[in-house]
């Protein structure tokens, strides 16, 4: 059984859920799940958890993502991308490349962003895109997102390509739309590619076809503990390892060395030798607890 993460290079025209089904078939394994949905028209990095990796999704650090996008000025659509219906066409001909470059500083840092109607966010238990398809628009609450960096790779008006590094939950479609509104002409996305999601990077991404054809699929997997590299590693004694396997919280004496101070809410990786045993979480009132034990 395979355990860990595949970094799949999602092609355009399929859903993230489709990719999960394709991975299941490619590796002949049922326990598969994806992290961080990509729009059907988008391509790029889609981390897919398999086996015990599905238990580790909740501990991933995907707080920062990077995208490369191509936007088209002068046309606004209801989906904010090329798949939608045209809402408005406005003149962009008075604009120059410098106008786009000048806007960059105002889109950096913490921002309030209005989630698009065509999104998987739920309201009253119903995904917004289902309401949008019926022509229903509901009030949404703007959400705080953070744009860490934004730069234009090329500008060939009315099209422009930009790279953005942003917080989880940022809609790049909406960012392009907001840039278009700030320029007074509207905009929508023609292309969107995710180049990084946390530690999962474009250079490590493989196609579904490559995964299916691989003689040794194990060679393509990112071990689940490597995916949790951002968590501190603590070593258990043999007795401590046995305790953890049985779901018993280890005591100070069950570690091979002093653990040092824990921060409130800190999550740590527990190992017995080279075996990744569990993720534990510290609570100031209750002490250490086992958040998830791995087989």
TrEMBL record:
According to its UniProt record, which residues of this chain constitute the active site? 39
User: Domain of life, per the record?
Assistant: Bacteria
Instruction: List each copy of the Pseudouridine synthase II N-terminal domain by range.
Output: 24-172
Q: Which residues form the tRNA pseudouridylate synthase B C-terminal domain?
A: 173-228
Q: Please write the reaction equations for the catalytic activity of this protein.
A: uridine(55) in tRNA = pseudouridine(55) in tRNA
| Coiled-coil ranges per UniProt | none
What is the role of the protein in this entry? Responsible for synthesis of pseudouridine from uracil-55 in the psi GC loop of transfer RNAs.
- Record protein name field: tRNA pseudouridine synthase B
The species this protein belongs to is: Citrifermentans bemidjiense (strain ATCC BAA-1014 / DSM 16622 / JCM 12645 / Bem) (Geobacter bemidjiensis)
Q: What is the lineage of its organism?
A: Bacteria, Pseudomonadati, Thermodesulfobacteriota, Desulfuromonadia, Geobacterales
């Amino acid at each position: 059984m395979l355990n860990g993460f595949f970094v799949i290079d999602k092609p355009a025209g399929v859903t993230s859920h489709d990719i999960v089904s394709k991975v299941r078939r490619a590796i002949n394994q049922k326990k598969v799940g994806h992290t961080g949905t990509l729009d059907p028209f988008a391509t790029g990095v889609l981390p897919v958890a398999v086996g015990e990796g599905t238990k580790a999704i909740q501990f991933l650090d995907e707080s920062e993502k990077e995208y490369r996008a191509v936007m088209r000025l002068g046309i606004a659509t209801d989906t904010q991308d090329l798949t939608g219906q045209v809402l408005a066409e406005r003149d962009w001909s008075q604009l120059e490349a410098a106008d786009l470059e000048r806007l960059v500083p105002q889109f950096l840092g913490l921002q309030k962003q209005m989630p698009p109607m065509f999104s998987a966010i739920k309201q009253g238990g119903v995904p917004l895109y289902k309401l949008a398809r019926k022509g229903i628009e509901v009030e949404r609450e703007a959400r705080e997102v953070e744009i860490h960096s934004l730069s234009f790779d090329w500008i060939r008006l009315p099209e422009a390509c930009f790279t953005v590094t942003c917080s989880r939950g940022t809609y790049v479609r909406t960012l392009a739309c907001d840039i278009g509104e700030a320029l007074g002409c509207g905009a929508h996305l023609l292309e969107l590619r995710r180049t990084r999601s946390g530690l999962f990077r474009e250079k490590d991404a493989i196609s579904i076809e490559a995964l299916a054809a691989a003689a040794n699929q194990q060679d393509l997997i990112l071990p689940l503990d490597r995916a949790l590299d951002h968590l501190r590693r603590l070593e258990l004694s043999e007795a401590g390892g046995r305790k953890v396997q049985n779901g018993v919280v280890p005591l100070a004496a069950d570690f091979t060395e002093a653990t040092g101070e824990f921060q409130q809410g800190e999550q740590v990786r527990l190992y017995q030798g080279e075996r990744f045993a569990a993720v534990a979480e510290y609570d100031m009132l209750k002490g250490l607890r086992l958040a998830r034990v791995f087989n």
